[in-house]
Each structure stands twice: as C-alpha cells, then as structure tokens.
Design brief:
The protein is α/β, with parallel strands linked by helices. The chain is built from eight helices and 23 strands. The strands form seven sheets. Strands 1, 2, 3, 4, 5, 6 and 23 form a seven-stranded mixed sheet that branches. A five-stranded parallel sheet has the order 8-19-9-10-15. A three-stranded antiparallel sheet has the order 16-17-18, with no helix packed on it.
C-alpha cells in the first residue's frame, strides 16, 4: 500500500460501518511501530492520520536538523536504519526511513482523515472521522507528545513589526527578518536554531529552565552507547533515578560555553513584552527584530469523549494502558522510560502495547486502575527537542 495515497485512492480503506479490531490514530513513528506488531498478529486495523504524509512531525522541523542519536539506535522494529551506524541522520533521512518503513510492511494507512471524536458504547469504540464512523474493539492513540505548538501569551504584546514564528515554522536562516533575533527556549531545539542563526545574525537565547548538558561523546564513545550500556534508558519513570531524570531534561552536545563561542548572548526567561521590546526575568530588556519560539508543544485530546484525563488534562495510564479498557497511548514522553518518545527506543513500548492488545482480545486484559496511574499521570507537555 502506498502510504502517501489519499483516502479516495485506497481500495482497502475502511468503509462506513466497517468493524475493525484496532484503530491507530497517528502515522508517525509510534503509529508505524505498533502497526508493525498488529500486522504481524494479523489484526484487522487501520492507521489514521490527518496529515498528507507519514511522519508529519518530522517534516515540520528545520532543514538542517541532525539527530543526536546514531543511526544504529534509530530503527523501528523489524527494519534497521540505513547508512553508517555510527553517523547521525538528518531530518530528510528520517522522513525517507519512515516512508520506506510503511511501504516495507505494507501498513494500512489512511491519510488526510481527521478523527473528530472517540466514544465508547458498551464494549466497542466509535471512531468518528470526517465523513464516516469506524467501529473498533480497541484503539491506540499514537499522536505522540508533539501536537499543538505552544507560544507564550506574552507574544501577543509585541508589535506587528516583530516577526514571530514557532520553531515548527522555522526552516532556514533566510526565513528570519532583521538582525536582532531572540530564540526563546533553552532546550536542544533552541540551542541548535540559535547556533545556526548566529552565523548571520545577532542572536540572543532566552532560557527559562536550565537543562543538564551532556557531551555527545565520552571517552571516544557516543553518549547513547554509554546510556545503553549502563541501562539508563531502560530506567522507568517511577524508579528513583527515573523520578529525578524526568524532572529535568537533558541538553545533548551543547553547552553555555559553546554559545559564547558563537557570540550568542544568554538571557533568563521572557517575562514581558511591549512594542518591539522584550523583558527578561532579571529585569533587563532587549529590542528585537524577530523571535523564534522554541517553547514546546501542548497536547490536544479534545476529541477524546472518554474519562481518560485527570483534572490537569493529563492522560491516566500505566505504561500506555489507559483507565478505559481497550484504549492505549503510545509515544508519550516518559510513558515508561526515558526512551519512550525516542525514535529507536519506542519499540519496547510498542511491543508491550501489542501484547496488551492480544490479552484484551483473548478476554484476559483490562484497563489500568486509578492506583496504577498515580505515578503515570505525568504532565503531557513536551519540549521541542525530539531527542531522536
């Protein structure tokens, strides 16, 4: 099946009132990974995505993006990532890999369809699309943590003379007007965009929460070789170390000292704005021509008409198994471990969810309980750095 085909072009697309075993929402790395296991289990399923191509989150990244995980760690289940295993793939390589993955396993993907509402009547789910409804025994929400770009409200206080864009809109330095540019956001994305712009602009970087800097290589080995060797990427979010790690994200291959070498001025968090001037947490001010907001994403679960969120809007789950029997989540940050939202480590969670789907189909599975989800109902906000 051609994963880039429109719904009308697909002979195998789900028809009105069709009943399937599983509907997967999202055709990114999480949706493709669980699709691999569902196909292997011979489930009747479809992967639905509102975008016009697989891996849409990756396609919205800037042109020069290079992953900080070597290719040997970037493959999904059943298909190695091609190229030098010790090299670092580009954005376009990731997109090409995801397209090849969908084609290799002939995954049943429907593009250009939006899931408007998800409900449950008795033991079955109703997945309401634009023009029809699919009935399914089980549903996997694989939309991941990168859903709605977040821009702080303070941006609304700036003059129209200041060019503003979220990092998802940034592609290359030529997209940015003027000379004085502020990049707001001190994660991996903010650092990388700031360094790229510094070659041709006067760049300032506003950092709200400082992250732990880690070198790309240690004693001649890539950082992820050490993290894998020491088992740190397998530490669960409710372990003692996991609880410490999930409270503070990491900065890979970049340091404040490196920023100074690039001539980038560092400021604290943006706290106010007026006209063409921004104010920082220390009271200092700066006139800017443009701002790139590398301020992460917020989830959008407004289409879930099910009691699966807590009072803070966070998913209630245990390793992706929600409190609603038959409903699962995949690809969330710290869903189970640090690797849960990383390209090459999503395999473990996908295999687990696949086994839970099999158990449920046999009548031996059930949803997570309230006690199960106490540690798992983590904030579903995400930094812009994918980390994979």
């Amino acid at each position: 099946m051609n994963p880039t085909a429109n719904t009308e072009d697909m002979d195998t697309a789900a028809t009105p009132a069709e009943q399937l075993d599983v509907v997967v929402v999202g055709a990114g790395q999480a949706g493709l990974a669980i699709g691999h296991y569902l196909a292997r289990s011979r489930r009747r399923f479809v992967i639905a995505d509102r975008a016009d191509a697989v891996g849409s989150a990756w396609r919205s990244r800037w042109d020069s993006l290079t992953l900080f995980t070597p290719r040997r760690y970037d493959g999904l289940p059943g298909l190695a990532f091609p190229g030098d295993p010790d090299g670092y793939p580009t954005r376009d390589e990731v997109v090409a890999y995801l397209e090849a993955y969908a084609q290799t396993f002939d995954l049943p993907i429907e593009l250009n369809v939006t899931v408007r509402r998800l409900t449950k009547d008795g033991n079955r789910f109703a997945v309401e699309l634009d023009e029809r409804t699919i009935v399914a025994d089980q549903v996997v929400v694989a939309t991941g943590p990168f859903q709605v770009p977040h821009v702080p409200a303070v941006g609304g206080d700036l003059s129209a003379a200041v060019q503003q864009m979220h990092s998802t809109e940034y592609r290359r330095p030529e997209d940015v007007r003027g000379d004085a540019v502020l990049v707001a956001g001190g994660g991996n994305t903010g650092y990388q965009i700031a360094k790229e712009l510094a070659a041709t602009r006067s760049v300032h970087l506003a950092i709200g929460t400082r992250q732990k800097p880690l070198p790309q290589r240690i004693l001649g080995r890539d950082l992820f070789w050490w993290l894998t060797k020491l088992g740190l990427l397998k530490k669960t979010g409710d372990s003692r170390l996991g609880r410490r790690l999930r409270e503070r994200d990491t900065l890979i291959g970049s340091t404040p000292r490196e920023l100074r070498r690039h001539g980038i001025a560092v400021h604290p968090r943006v706290t106010g704005a007026s006209g063409t001037t921004v104010e920082f947490g220390d009271g200092s001010r700066l006139d800017v021509d443009a701002i790139v907001w590398a301020t992460g994403y917020r989830p959008d679960y407004s289409w879930l008409a099910l009691p699966v969120l807590d009072d803070g809007g966070r998913v209630r789950h245990r390793r992706g198994v929600s409190v609603v029997p038959g409903l699962y989540f995949l690809g969330l940050s710290w869903q189970h471990t640090r690797g849960s939202a990383l390209l090459g480590w999503i395999e473990d969670d996908a295999a687990f969810i696949s086994r839970e789907i099999d158990r449920f189909a046999r009548g031996t599975g059930s949803g997570a309980t309230a006690d199960d989800t106490k540690e798992r109902a983590l904030p579903q906000t995400a930094p812009l750095s994918k980390g994979a």
